[in-house]
């Protein structure tokens, strides 16, 4: 029976046959060893993406390149930069992505039920999300067209803001992170999102990070009652914990240009700091004026004297 090989026929015919009589085997041509690795797969995907971008007009391709440089040079924690990279690449577990991988029964947003839960919907168009941006006090063009991706939105902000992009993008990133955190708390803990809480968290984290970077403290001893954390923060430590690695990277980046020493202390000697940290996580503002110190904190301070 005669037949023709329609696709790849010439390539198959031109493949040299081994004279040694060895068995055929599958080979990954994008690595020297011939074996597939995640690294080689990532480089191939990145190369294909670049080739696709080069197919766009030159101005668009140039803006995309500038955007990536701006994102990685933001004065923000590494965790936040990585998150921005993930949402631009749509590499987050939205219901749209989970449904496509047969990990969710429906792609529709469970909070509003209005449309498919894309990353653009989560961060920009969901009902409670719109309240966050409306109360943020930031004036910027939000995409109305559902076809506009997060990446295109960021590029538009880059064009509109110009030299102010770096300054404003840090806060935009923190708000996006706070929205995503609230969305996950609803998914996993059944806690309804609160636009005021999300905005307060974002503003607080952004302000604290800027204040810490602007401080003139270059030599300090930072105490913690968590021994494993202190051990992992030591200069030559090889200990790793992927569950908190993002926070370790944040701390390391903050202390990179300073002579900070991380030391362990007993929890009983760290009760004031523990009280402030716990209440800060709950969104309770801690007054700085001595006359307004909460009674519970005041009692802890007196007991330490």
TrEMBL record:
What is the name attached to this protein's record? Reverse transcriptase zinc-binding domain-containing protein
* A molecular function GO annotation: nucleic acid binding
Annotated Reverse transcriptase zinc-binding domain ranges read 36-133
Q: Where is the RNase H type-1 domain?
A: 215-277
Gene source species = Rhododendron simsii
Q: Which InterPro entries match?
A: RNaseH_domain, RVT-Znf
Q: Which Pfam families match?
A: RVT_3, zf-RVT
């Amino acid at each position: 029976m005669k037949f023709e090989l329609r696709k790849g026929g010439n390539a198959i015919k031109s493949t040299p046959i081994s004279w040694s009589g060895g068995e055929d085997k599958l080979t990954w041509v994008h690595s020297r060893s011939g074996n597939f690795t995640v690294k080689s797969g990532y480089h191939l995907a990145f190369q294909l993406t670049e080739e696709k971008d080069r197919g766009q007009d030159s101005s668009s391709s140039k803006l995309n390149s500038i955007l990536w440089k701006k994102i990685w040079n933001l004065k923000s924690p590494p965790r936040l930069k990585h998150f921005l990279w993930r949402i631009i690449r749509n590499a987050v577990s939205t219901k749209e992505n989970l449904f496509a991988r047969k990990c969710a029964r429906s792609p529709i947003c469970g909070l509003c039920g209005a449309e498919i839960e894309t990353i653009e919907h989560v961060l920009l168009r969901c009902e409670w999300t719109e309240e966050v941006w409306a109360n943020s006090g930031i004036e910027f063009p939000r995409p109305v067209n559902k076809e506009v991706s997060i990446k295109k939105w960021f590029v538009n902000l880059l064009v509109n803001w110009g030299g102010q992009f770096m300054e404003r993008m840090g806060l935009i990133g923190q708000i996006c992170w706070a929205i995503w955190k609230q969305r996950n708390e609803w998914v996993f803990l059944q806690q309804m999102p609160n636009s005021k809480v999300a905005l307060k968290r974002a503003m607080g984290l952004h302000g604290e990070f800027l204040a810490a970077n602007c401080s003139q403290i270059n030599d300090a001893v930072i105490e913690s009652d968590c021994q494993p954390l202190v051990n992992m923060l030591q200069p030559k430590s090889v200990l790793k914990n992927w569950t908190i690695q993002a926070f370790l990277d944040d701390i390391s980046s903050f202390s990179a240009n300073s002579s900070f020493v991380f030391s362990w202390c007993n929890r009983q000697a760290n009760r004031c700091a523990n009280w402030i940290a716990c209440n800060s996580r709950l969104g309770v503002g801690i007054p700085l004026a001595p006359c307004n110190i909460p009674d519970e904190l005041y009692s802890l301070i007196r007991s330490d004297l």
